[in-house]
Amino acid sequence: QVQLVESGGGLVKPGGSLRLSCAASGFTFNDYYMSWIRQTPGKGLEWISYISTGGGVTYYADSVKGRFTISRAKDSLYLQMNSLRVEDTAVYYCARVSSSWSCRWGQGTLVTVSS
Amino acid sequence: QSALTQPPSASGSPGQSVTISCTGTSSDVGTYNFVSWYQQHPGKAPKLIIYEVDKRPSGVPDRFSGSKSGNTASLTVSGLQADDETDYYCSSYAGSNTVVFGGGTKLTVL
After folding, report:
1. Minimal Cα distance from B32: which residue of A?
2. Which of chain B's residues have a Cβ under 8 Å away from the Cβ of A93?
3. Cβ of B58 under 8 Å from any chain A Cβ?
4. Contacts of B71 (CB under 8 A, 6+ apart)
5. What does the pLDDT look like over B8-66, one tens digit per residue?
């Protein structure tokens, strides 16, 4: 079955960096677009980054553009997060994106940005 | 402020039906038949229950159904059960490799 397991979350100070990882199994990773989605109590769900099957097309929400970088390698998805802000505090989900733009989600990893 | 508008809450008695709306614009829900619905229990990841407006993934009971009219999509939960009491989110493709989400609806089974 489809499994997506995120890791790398934690507590970081404003201005700091974190790298999130997502290990994928149970499907042919290279056949799917992948995305990072975050969830906060205040702003709800936010589609923050997307990468195409070959990695040649990426998308970033304005809120993270220039600070976050999405990448993929064999059966893994990554999100490099730099210049973190308090408002980046959220649960970050890795998601497999289907051709119908529906998602299968991992269990999430909590990122807390606080001094 | 979420891009898609959902009512914050909905409720119904066991066995009844309840419908949750999801209102977007002509740039998302109104143009694309790529509306999805997710069920999220506390502390858990969202689970896909409807995709492409009205399709159910394998394993999702047929008590869950979806529809769309104009810029508004709807999720109907029939034969309400206690375990249906949780949060529901809609999403829609919005072009340019982006997806927008609703703010979520908390469903209460009375």
Report:
1. A100
2. 45-46
3. no
4. B23, B24, B25, B26, B29, B30
5. 999 999 999 999 999 999 999 999 999 999 999 998 999 999 999 999 999 999 999 99
Cβ separation B52–A102 shorter than 8 A: yes
CB contact under 8 A, B98 and A50: yes
Which of B31, B40, B97 would best serve as a mutation to test chain A binding (most A beta carbons within 10 A)?
A: B97
> What is the pLDDT confidence band of residue B1, given thresholds at 50, 70 and 90?
low
* DSSP symbols for B38-102: EEE-TTS--EEEEBTTTB--TT--TTEEEEEETTEEEEEE-S--GGG-SEEEEEEE-STT-EEEB
